[in-house]
């Protein structure tokens, strides 16, 4: 059984051209003119792009005394509706501290539910012999990324020595450390200060997490990664201070990557000062939304290449769950949604406005992260032999974003009312149509697959070679040149 996507303009990270795409089973078989197949998918007056990869989701995450309400079923269907064909979810170890048991837990819940493909990042929330011993097996199972929370003191936060130990282990294993860069000690102190002063509403969330706490942590993580000799990926970069640290590191040849979120690119801190408590609380996430100057910095970073990926950090809690923080902002579950809207909002606010080219749009929504996570060109590419994860992207299919019609099961949408000019006409995951606009598509639980990612991406290999050439050497001294008497 073959399918041919006909009449579209293919857009990849490096060029755009008119061609058809022939799919056989799950794979792209040919790219060229006048191709034919058993079934035709119409791409006339549309673009054909690689399926989006969202490398930052927290579906069903247990967090802050509750569990994120977006399920793997609803989340992956929302992803398909928005043109995302792979997501990478964060696995959190449970009370027994075992990384391997945590993977089993995630497999048991996620795999029967997913409509599109899935990868995992593993969270390192402390340091022990057991974690050290289990990390190689985690990597063997296709999880080549380890996330470190520098915030959430008393819960997920790791100390510098723990982070250094884990980064060194990542260097040995060919894995990539990720960090949530916010100084958790400062956040805790500022939360206490604002609560004591009577600032208990969601605006206190923004006050207690200023850009300085993010900039400090980003700089610290970069230096720790450099000392450990490992590349570093900084999730949800929201401000100029963190971006500046990344730019500076990259300028020095360090392998550091930065990921802004679509929310930080388009929503600003005024959301936290909204008169309606629920409106403001629904937008509480960490880091918080920033002002226009920070947004401009993030957009510039995407165009300049100092920031490489746009993600969502989809951690969606219902309004009812947000009400856990009515008495004080520190108890509002942190997280927002975006999985369904990432591509459409980025296209409308980025490409339509001239901030990004269509090719840059593809780079930051799929290709760059596929390379960073070592799953390219199976994912993030339109080449023969790649998985047929493809989106027929219709630049004339406009809509107004609203919770009333979304596939996400959350009762609101932080992008409510935003007009988008483009959407998927079709989304294909490994050759299957998982979303067809206006055709009553349904979730297909269990058809998605776990995608293992091998260790030692090429940037890691290069850095290892460089570090071993320049590593400290022991100096053999003539005993006569060593003073005696100590
Ligand atoms: N970002 C956020 O507020 N919630 C999800 C957990 C995290 O990534 O920090
Ligand atoms: Zn985070």
UniProtKB/TrEMBL annotation:
Annotated Amidohydrolase-related domain residues: 47-434
CDD domains cross-referenced by the UniProt entry: D-HYD
Taxonomy, superkingdom: Bacteria
Entry cofactors: Zn(2+)
Keyword annotations from UniProtKB, A to Z: Hydrolase, Metal-binding
Pfam families linked to this entry: Amidohydro_1
Database matches in Gene3D superfamilies: Metal-dependent hydrolases, Urease, subunit C, domain 1
InterPro entries: Amidohydro-rel (IPR006680), Hydantoinase/dihydroPyrase (IPR011778), Metal-dep_hydrolase_composite (IPR011059), Metal_Hydrolase (IPR032466), Metallo-dep_Hydrolases_sf (IPR050378)
NCBIfam families per UniProt: D-hydantoinase
Family: Belongs to the metallo-dependent hydrolases superfamily. Hydantoinase/dihydropyrimidinase family.
PANTHER family linked to this entry: COLLAPSIN RESPONSE MEDIATOR PROTEIN (PTHR11647:SF1), HYDRANTOINASE/DIHYDROPYRIMIDINASE FAMILY MEMBER (PTHR11647)
Protein name in UniProt: Dihydropyrimidinase
Organism from which the protein derives: Paralimibaculum aggregatum
């Amino acid at each position: 059984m073959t399918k041919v996507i006909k009449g579209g303009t293919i857009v990849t990270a490096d060029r755009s051209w008119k061609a058809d795409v022939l799919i056989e089973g799950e794979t792209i078989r040919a790219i060229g003119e006048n191709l034919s197949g058993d079934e035709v998918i119409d791409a006339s007056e549309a673009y054909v792009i690689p399926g989006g990869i969202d490398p930052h989701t927290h579906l069903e995450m247990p967090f802050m005394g509750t569990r994120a309400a977006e399920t793997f079923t609803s989340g992956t269907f929302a992803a398909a509706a928005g043109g995302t064909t792979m997501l990478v979810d964060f696995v959190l170890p449970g009370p027994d501290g075992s990384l391997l048991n945590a993977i089993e837990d995630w497999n048991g819940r996620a795999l029967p539910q997913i409509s599109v493909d899935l990868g995992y990042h593993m969270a390192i929330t402390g340091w022990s012999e057991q974690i050290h011993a289990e990390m190689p097996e985690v990597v063997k199972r296709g999880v080549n990324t380890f996330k470190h929370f520098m915030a959430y003191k008393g819960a997920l936060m790791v100390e510098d020595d723990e982070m250094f130990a884990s980064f060194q282990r990542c260097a040995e294993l060919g894995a990539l450390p990720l960090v949530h860069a916010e100084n958790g000690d400062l956040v805790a102190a500022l939360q206490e200060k604002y609560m004591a002063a009577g600032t208990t509403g969601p605006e206190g969330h923004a006050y207690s997490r200023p850009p300085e706490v993010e900039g400090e942590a980003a700089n610290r993580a970069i230096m720790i990664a450099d000392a450990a000799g490992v590349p570093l990926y900084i999730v949800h970069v929201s401000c100029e201070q963190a971006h500046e640290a990344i730019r500076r590191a990259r300028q020095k040849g360090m392998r550091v990557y930065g990921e802004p979120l679509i929310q930080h690119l388009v929503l600003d801190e005024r959301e936290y000062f909204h008169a309606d408590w629920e409106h403001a609380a629904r937008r509480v996430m960490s880091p918080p939304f920033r002002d226009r100057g920070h947004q401009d910095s993030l957009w510039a970073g995407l165009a300049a290449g100092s920031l490489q990926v746009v993600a969502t950090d989809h951690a969606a809690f219902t309004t009812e769950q947000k009400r856990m923080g009515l008495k004080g902002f520190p108890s509002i579950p942190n997280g927002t949604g975006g999985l369904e809207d990432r591509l459409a909002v980025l296209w409308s606010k980025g490409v339509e406005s001239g901030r990004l080219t269509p090719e840059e749009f593809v780079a930051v929504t799929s290709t760059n992260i596929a390379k960073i996570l070592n799953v390219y060109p199976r994912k993030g590419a339109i080449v023969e032999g790649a998985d047929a994860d493809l989106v027929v992207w219709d630049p004339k299919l406009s809509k107004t974003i609203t919770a009333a019609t979304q596939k996400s099961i959350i009762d609101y949408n932080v992008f409510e009312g935003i007009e988008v000019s483009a959407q998927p006409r079709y989304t294909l995951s490994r050759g299957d149509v998982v979303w067809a606009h206006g055709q009553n598509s349904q979730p297909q639980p269990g058809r998605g697959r776990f995608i293992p990612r091998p260790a030692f991406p090429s940037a890691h290999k290069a850095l290892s070679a460089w570090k071993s050439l320049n590593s400290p050497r022991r100096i053999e001294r003539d005993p006569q040149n060593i003073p005696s008497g100590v």
